[in-house]
Amino acid sequence: MENKDPMFELLSSLEHIVLAREVVNLAPALQVQPVAMPEPQRLREITGMQVDEFARVMGVSISSVKSWEAKRTRPSGSAQKLMQLLHSNPTLGRQLLD
C-alpha cells in the first residue's frame, strides 16, 4: 500500500472544494435570462414600420396590430416568436417586406 503525504491530500481536497464552489457559483451566471421584448407598438417604432407594414410582416390584419397596441388582445405564440426575431434583428422587418 502506498503511503501518501497528508499535506498533499489536504491541499488536494481543499482544491476540489474550492473548484466545486466556483462551478456552483458560476451556474446562475451561465443560465440564459429571457430578454424583455418591447410592446408591439414600441417594436413597430423600433423597426421603423407603419401599422400596415407591421401587419404584413406579422401576417395579421391591421386591426389585430391595433388591438395589440391598445392592449385589448395579445399576439399569438407564433406572432410573439416573430416579434422576438424582429426585436433581435430590427432590419428583418424591412427584408420581409421586400
Q: What is the topology?
A:
Layout: H1 6-30, H2 40-47, H3 51-58, H4 62-69, H5 77-88, H6 92-97
Helix pairs in contact: 3-4
Protein name: Transcriptional regulator
Keywords: DNA-binding, Transcription, Transcription regulation
GO molecular function: DNA binding
Structure at a glance:
With 98 residues, this protein is mostly helical.
Essential attributes:
68% helix; 434 Repressor (Amino-terminal Domain); 98 residues; mainly alpha; DNA binding
- Low-confidence blocks of residues: none
H-E order: HHHHHH
> What Rg do the Cα atoms give?
26 Å
Mean pLDDT over all positions: 81
Roughly what fraction of the amino acids lie in strands? under 5%
CATH topology of the domain at 40-97: 434 Repressor (Amino-terminal Domain)
What structural class do the secondary elements suggest?
Answer: mainly alpha
CATH architectural type of the domain at 40-97: Orthogonal Bundle
Question: How would you characterize the largest beta sheet?
Answer: none
| The CATH C-level class name of the domain at 40-97 | Mainly Alpha
Shape: rod-shaped
User: How widely separated are the two ends?
Assistant: 77 Å
User: What's the number of extended β-strand segments?
Assistant: 0
Number of helices: 6
What is the helical fraction, as a range of percent?
55-70%
Protein name: Transcriptional regulator
GO molecular function, one term: DNA binding
Organism: Winslowiella iniecta
Keywords: DNA-binding, Transcription, Transcription regulation
